[in-house]
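Pipeline run #58 for the internal structure catalog. This entry was flagged by the ingest filter as a single-chain record with no existing model, so it goes straight to prediction. Upstream metadata was stripped on purpose; only the residue string is passed forward. Reviewer on rotation: M.T. Logging verbosity set to normal.
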Amino acid sequence: MDAIDWPALGRGALWIVGLSISLAAFSHMRWTAQQMAVPLRTALGWDSFLAPFFAGLVLFSVGLAWGATRLWETIAWGILAVLFAWQAFVSVRSSARGPQ
């Protein structure tokens, strides 16, 4: 019996969990917008959606950067992870100030 490749399992789990978080944030915001009778386009600009959405994309990007086989892929996914982290930080910071 072969041993489990734990790093590969971690890489796969990281990007799957990241996309799951982003999809859950989108799904929840769609439901919230429907319940509040607000257009989805408006609701997708709310910080309560953007913070978890971008946090999920950070995990997704880190998982793909970790699994990249070429240096340029690692750099590209790393840059995306940093940009998504910045967006998540800005969204959390904006929501801490209260509703707009």
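catalog note: The chain has a mean pLDDT of 91.
catalog note: Residues 4 and 35 are 45 Å apart (CA to CA).
status: ready for reviewer M.T.
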